[in-house]
Amino acid sequence: MHNPLRPLRVAILCSFNLDLMTRPLEGLLKQHLFQPHLYLSAYGQWEIDPLNSDSDLYQFAPDIVLLFAEFSDLMPTANRDGMLPLAEEAQALGQDAWSRVEAVLHSLLQFLPSHTQILCHNLLAPQVSSLGLLEGNAGYSLVTSAETFNQNLRDRVREESRLFGFDYAGLVTKHGWQNWSDSRLWHLGRMRLSRTGIQLLTHQYTRYIKTLFIPRRKCLVLDLDNTLWGGVIGEERLFGIQLGHEGIGLAYREFQRAALSLSQRGIILAICSKNNPQDALAVLREHPDTLLHPDNFACMEINWEPKPQNLQRIAQTLNIGLDSLVFWDDSPLERELVSHQLPEVLVVDVPDDPSDYAAHLLDLDCFDTLTLTEADRQRGEMYQQQAHRQEYLAQPQSTSVEEFYASLDITVMIQTASQFDLPRITQLTQRTNQFNMTTRRYTETEIQTLASDRTYGLYALKLQDRFGDLGLVGAAIVRCELDGWHLENLLMSCRALGRNVEDAFFAYLVEQASYDGVKLNGYFKPSAKNALVRTFLQKYSLAPPQNWPGDVWDFVVPIACIQFPTWITFITEVNNVTA
Amino acid sequence: MSQHNLTQIIAETLELPPEAVTADSSSDTVEAWDSLKHLDVILAVEQTYKVKFKMAEIAHLVSVAQLEEALRQHNAL
Predict the structure, then answer these.
(1) Are strands A268-274 and A219-222 parallel, antiparallel or unpaired?
(2) Which of A50-54, A537-541, A558-562 has the lowest mean pLDDT?
(3) This prediction's pTM
(4) Does the structure show a pLDDT above 90 at A243?
(5) Average confidence score pLDDT of chain B
(6) Are the beta carbons of A106 and A118 closer than 8 angstroms?
(7) B59–A188 C-beta distance less than 8 A
(8) What pLDDT is attached to residue A569?
(9) Cβ distance A101 to A108 under 8 Å?
(10) In angstroms, rounded to a whole number, what is the distance separating the alpha carbons of residues A88 and A65?
(11) Which of A397, A520, A577, B19 has the fewest CB atoms within 10 Å, i.e. is most exposed?
């Protein structure tokens, strides 16, 4: 598949000499299909550059700013001169340090282009300090200073959508201070990191940057035997398998807990196992030490068919792409088979020792995200409802299609998007592939700008049915001009498809435009994944001809061309767009 | 490891073609080998040969011959 490089301008503001990082960072970003262009603040300029709106930094117009102020540079007196800060003084030092960084952040947010995102380091107190063992024993504490700073940063990150915290303290702690620092480099060249430190920081920067631009995977598909428990259920029976509070059983229990915590981060769980379903389900239902129960899985394929087929079925049931699946299986043979037959599926290189399972799972970067919406938290539940829906839909129907749809009790609410809807809408633009007219991705900042722009209408569609609340599943971005309403994008989450809800949305927009005395103009940009949109447009004779070679197909929707589906209960509370 | 390997590491670190660094190269003869790049060279050599030079050594190891000699002293060659 052809993947064009994504141009990316990264500015690094660092409180010490970080020149040695530019080459490795450029190299690694290139490996990850970026076309990077780096800017590094001159030594001693990290704080001054941002304050001056004419500085080279702003000329450079970065897409991302990495702000790395190191503890010892921010609080030079804290760890020097035999000074022993009392607890209150330590807090004041941390507060002063934060004020300096906050001033920098303030200028950055003010002068940078509105799409620019900022990653700001937190602080780690030096692990070899002038306090020695007095740290934490005499009311003196450098850790207090760092913690004061970090708390301020966390608060600021919560209220500013363009700002993200970079967990530097966690990164250094994970790899160890001793590996991280090299005092020779500090003495010779004012560099605070060892070569290893630079390499690890390079990887972590890349990981964060990827998370900002590349949608995460949605679903973890788990094997059962020797994955969720030790042993083979078909042979060892319910109390012969290893799952519990000791030894190997504990390792599997912790792995289950890790999978649960991913599901709380909005990752869907599914099962793909070669087993007799009744044996396997007995463990999840009845084993006293299982943390995972059938309810935690949106989809279970437990049978003796080849796993690639089962994975395809899982993707179908959940209505997500194969490229949203992550496959975890202890058998190298199954892994090989799946990677070979379904290259889109990410196959985890499972560690040999179950003791390493939990940590390995939690550290997979394919599930990284820097924001978590309420919808994410409820996702597992929603996909379970989805599976129930599918079951219902698969039942033989004696009634007409209309009666059947009516039995689903579908309620649709369309509103002008509120502030609370914006993160979810952003997420939809970034993650939706199938029913997405133009596949244009937006950042949260861009969506916010559109929401406050009076020429734009930003609509959110929420959906309920007899199985539950699906939440915000559709969005429309409309530019309202005198010559017509221009539908810059219309998208529906895959979990809402198959009920003609998109028809209701479309009908609504056409109607609103007609109230404004104009027609609705639409744009369709065919992609590898949005064939559904073409099918949808074909219904209304609005689709481009087959094999149409163009890039963006534009069409005008005749008024009254679209019937509102009668089986959908419709609620609207739209604020006047032009008000 | 051979000297060939050492010159290769240096060339790669200085972003030069392999033939640009030879057994008698030094920071005087190779323009790209400036004081900042010198640290990069030292760190790359250290990582490859699993040695750690003292700070005082680093400043002097500015030629292929001197690096080779130091590696020998550290029993790394």
Answers:
(1) parallel
(2) A558-562
(3) 0.74
(4) yes
(5) 91
(6) no
(7) yes
(8) 86
(9) no
(10) 32
(11) B19
Which residue, A206, A302, A268, A250, is CA-closest to A6?
A: A206
Are the Cβ atoms of A184 and B58 closer than 8 angstroms? Answer: yes
Instruction: Kindly determine whether residue A191 and residue B46, on different chains, have CB atoms separated by under 8 Å.
Output: no
Q: Residue A386 half-sphere exposure, CB side, CA atoms within 13 Å?
A: 30
Matching residue, tokens 């990082």: A21
Residue type, A108: L
Q: What number is the average pLDDT over the span A337-361?
A: 97
What pLDDT digit, counting tens, does each position of A247-280 carry? 999 999 999 999 999 998 889 999 999 999 999 9
Confirm if A221 and A314 have CB atoms less than 8 A apart: yes
Chain A from 528 to 567: CB within 8 A of any B CB? none
User: Which tokens belong to B54?
Assistant: 């003292």
Contact B39 A191 (CB under 8 A): yes
| C-beta of residue A268 within 8 angstroms of C-beta of residue A219 | yes
Q: Are A498 and A532 in contact, with CB atoms under 8 Å apart?
A: no
Show which residues on chain B lie within 8 Å of chain A, measured between beta carbons: 15, 35-36, 39-40, 43-44, 46-47, 54-55, 58-59
Decide if B14 contacts B64 (C-beta within 8 A). no
* Contact between chains at B58 and A195 (C-beta distance less than 8 A): no
For A159, residues 6+ apart whose C-beta sits below 8 A from its C-beta are: none
Reported confidence tier of residue A498, pLDDT bands at 50, 70, 90: confident
What mean pLDDT comes out for the span A546-556? 88
- Residues near A563 by beta carbon (within 8 Å), at least 6 away in sequence: A503, A507
Concatenated DSSP letters of B23-65: TT-BTTT-TT--HHHHHHHHHHHHHHHT----HHHHHH--BHH
Chain A environment of B16 (Cβ under 8 Å): none
Of A20, A188, A195, the CB nearest to B55: A188
The β-bridge partners of A33 are none
**A305 CB-side CA count, 13 A:** 12
> Is A185 an 8 Å CB contact of chain B?
yes
Which chain B residue lies closest to A196 (C-alpha atoms)?
Answer: B47
- Taking 80 as the threshold, does the pLDDT of residue B13 lie above it? yes
Residues of A with CB below 8 A from B46's CB? 195
Measured CA to CA, the distance from residue A101 to residue A46 in angstroms comes to: 10
Over range A398-415, report the average pLDDT: 81
Identify the pLDDT of residue A3: 64
Residues A175, B28: Cα–Cα separation, whole Å = 38
A540/A524 Cα distance (integer angstroms): 14
Which two tokens mark A496? 């809402």
* Buried-exposed string A163-175: b where 16+ CB fall within 10 A, e elsewhere: bbbbbbbebbeeb
**Chain A residue closest in CA terms to B45:** A195
For B54, residues 6+ apart whose C-beta sits below 8 A from its C-beta are: A184
Q: For residue range A367-400, what is the model confidence (pLDDT) as tens digits?
A: 998 888 777 777 777 777 777 777 777 776 666 7
**What mean pLDDT is predicted for residues B1-8?**
74
Which chain A residues touch B59 with a CB distance below 8 Å?
Answer: 188
